[in-house]
Amino acid sequence: MTVTYEEALQKYEPVFGLETHVELGTLTKMFCGCITTFGAEPNTHTCPVCLGLPGSLPVVNERAIEYTIKIGLALNCSIAAWCRFARKNYFYPDMPKNFQISQYDEPLCTDGYLDVAVGGKTVRVGIERVHLEEDTGKSLHVGGATGRIQGAEYSLVDYNRAGIPLVEIVTKPVPGTRFLAPEVAKAYVTELRDVLRSLDVSDVRMEEGSMRCDVNTSISLIGSATWGTRTETKNVNSLRSVERAVRSEIERQAWVLDEGGRVIQETRHFHEDTGVTTSGRSKEEAQDYRYFPEPDLVPVAPDADWVESIRASLPELPSARRARLIESWSLSELDFEALRNARALDAVEATVAAGASPADARKWWLSELARRANDSGTEVSELPITPADVARVAALVAAGTLNDQLARQVIEAVLDGEGTPDEVVAARSLAVVSDDSALLAAIDEAIAANQDVVAKIRDGRVQAAGVLVGAVMKATRGKADAARVKDLVLERLA
Ligand SMILES: [Zn+2]
Q: Do 464 and 419 belong to one domain?
């Protein structure tokens, strides 16, 4: 491939769109009473309905409708007063009924938007629709090297997942983001995941497949009146892959067009290891699925009062939280993104609630603690230190009992299980030496040992005092207040 991303963007305008599937966290499946727990023995959570046995009839899970309305409202959508499920007909071994109950031309939620922040800028991503359907089972291809069906000796099917409620959230095409397209796509999925998490409707674990994205990408010559042919990259299963998939398709399509070729409308697979997509199958058209209204289910007509009560029950959404924290903590958008990217928002908010200043709380969680979490491959929220502990350390610094260096030692010790900050300070005698007479003794020693420096200071070169301060800090093993030491040094030599 010979076209770089920068070259492609000099010439072409990208447009992308995302279809995100989210498994809802209901206790039971969409149309039967089977439980939905992840990771059970294969085919233990099944019944005649989700196995598609003759004569079984589906019944809609009310909680799944409620969750979908919640999602629609959080995404600023209109909620249909009346809608129907539809049959989407296709054959695949992981679909026991040979059709999937989905929604087609009558989705539950339509025409909304989600604002996402990228590099301090806000991009509004339009939401085309949010609809409800059932998940398929899972095929396991055994005996091949790759786990794919090609080369496998035989395949097994697990129907535990068949019938789990699945919400599909489809964006409108997003034009005009140019170089930022991959980043905006990633930011959208991140924001969407945060919204869904705040709604508590799904565990949104991309690595377990409870949230999966298909990424549509097209490019056209800059200034062209029409958009190019789009490809659909399937099952992109991490935030980073969303960004890479868009970027790689832009580069590939630019190369195809530059070579005089034509982009084919098709499904493509993203490969995590190489970061490129390869051709899958040519894309089906809607008519291939022979949709028709599901005859075994009554229409869904959510009562307006019920919708309003769901709206009233919505929690604070991430965008509102962002606005509130930026305002009350005097943050820039970039400061906020740094906190969110470090997944430290909850910890910092709890630390502020425990009495620390927002600046102190941010400082500790983004420096020492973020580094420690990174080193141990965990989330900051999983570190063995509480927001109250961090607030206490900040208070000890503010009171002059600890300096920053000692505070770092205290935090390390708390993380290592040595007790609360106060217990660590007591056990290790870590408090700052505030007794001037003890400091003066150390200062006098430093002065005696550094006569050349003393001469410089007396000459008016006050910054040379740093050497003496350093000597005192060393002599007290970091337990002195450096600012106080400097004042005392200058007083002594005045
Ligand atoms: Zn079932």
A: no
Distance CA 268, CA 259 (A): 20
Distance 58 CA to ligand 1 centre (A): 9
CA–CA distance from 399 to each of 392, 411, 430, 434, 438 (Å)?
A: 10, 17, 14, 11, 19
* Distance between CA atoms of residues 412 and 16, nearest Å: 45
In a domain, 319, yes or no: no
Give the strand order in the sheet containing 266-270.
Answer: 78-79, 109-118, 121-134, 165-171, 12-23, 211-221, 231-236, 266-270, 277-282
Dist. CA 36 → ligand 1 center (Å) = 9
Q: How far is the CA of 62 from the centre of ligand 1 (A)?
A: 15
Residue 195 lies in a domain: yes
CA of 32 to the centre of ligand 1 (A): 5
DSSP characters over 193-245 = HHHHHHHTS----GGGTSEEEEEEEEEEETT-SS----EEEEEE-SHHHHHHH
Contact, 319 vs 81, CB < 8 A?
no
Distance 294 CA to ligand 1 centre (A): 18
Q: Same domain, yes or no, for 32 and 143?
A: yes
* pTM reported for the whole predicted model: 0.80
In a domain, 320, yes or no: no
pLDDT tens digits for the chain (494 residues)?
578 999 999 999 999 999 999 999 999 999 999 999 988 999 999 999 999 999 999 999 999 999 999 999 999 999 999 999 999 999 888 999 999 999 999 999 999 999 998 877 899 999 999 999 999 999 999 988 877 888 899 999 999 999 999 999 999 999 999 999 999 999 999 999 999 999 999 999 888 889 999 999 999 999 999 999 999 998 898 999 999 999 999 999 999 999 999 999 999 988 888 888 888 877 667 678 999 999 999 999 999 999 999 999 999 999 999 999 999 999 988 888 889 888 899 999 999 999 999 999 999 999 889 999 989 888 898 999 999 999 999 999 998 888 888 899 999 999 999 999 999 988 888 777 767 777 888 888 889 888 898 888 888 888 888 898 898 888 888 778 788 888 888 888 87
Looking at the structure of the chain, the number of domains it has is 3
